[in-house]
Amino acid sequence: MQQISSVNNKLIKELAKLNKKKYREDTGMYLIEGFHLFEEALKAHRNYQYLLGTDDALSKAESDYGVDLSGKRVILIKSAIARHLSSTKNTQAIFMVLKIAQPKNFTFNYGKWVLLDNLADPGNVGTIIRTADAAGFEGVILSPESVDLYNPKTQRAMQGSQFHIDLVVSDLNDAINQLQSYDIPVYASMLDQTAKELPDFAKVAQLGLVIGNEAHGVSEMIAKACDEKLYIPIKGQAESLNAAVAAGIMIYHFA
């Protein structure tokens, strides 16, 4: 086990940059924080690049989770460093550095998928992924323009679901074409004159469900590629539903 006591340490400076998207992309690594994500990563047998924690946090990792603290990649840090690395107000002082595991090629030939068309809010994206996981979906496909999967806010909202289901960043047209080539229908969630109410749709064994951008909805190009359009009827006076709430209703309708 190493010990680092200064926030000015070269490695600590480098790891602190992982809270920024550009640096995550440049290094191919990302940072997770807190015991829940730490536990989910261990359950998923993810190999960490570094494990960092204060004395209390590492002692808990050893006693409660059986982590071997003797390795060179385990680093004992001071509380000031934990606060420096943290993206939260009250840090649990335990951090893991993991490799980004994005497949370069992926075949969408089976299962139920959520497709996210340029979603901008990390909390919405993380919540949708968590809901898809809870409902037993195969995975979530994100357009390249959607919010970064490894954003700390997205990570917190996913609550470990990133370790349970497939998460793929892909051109949505390509993904839709692949799904349809395997006779998997793709439905777009949108308000449109040709859209049908959600209750009119029967459950299907496999599908793709497209959720659009919070402000602009599903793009015209993606909508044209889909087999059907659907919407959730609004019974009160609210103009619309939050994207993650709407996605949750539709995901469980088809679960």
Automatic annotation (TrEMBL):
Pfam families: MRM3-like_sub_bind, SpoU_methylase. It comes from the Bacteria. GO terms for molecular function: RNA binding; RNA methyltransferase activity. SMART domains: SpoU_sub_bind. GO terms for cellular component: cytoplasm. The keyword Methyltransferase applies. GO terms for biological process: methylation; RNA processing. Residues 31-104 form the RNA 2-O ribose methyltransferase substrate binding domain. Signal peptide: none annotated. Keywords: Methyltransferase, Transferase. Belongs to the class IV-like SAM-binding methyltransferase superfamily. RNA methyltransferase TrmH family. This is RNA methyltransferase. It comes from Lactobacillus xujianguonis.
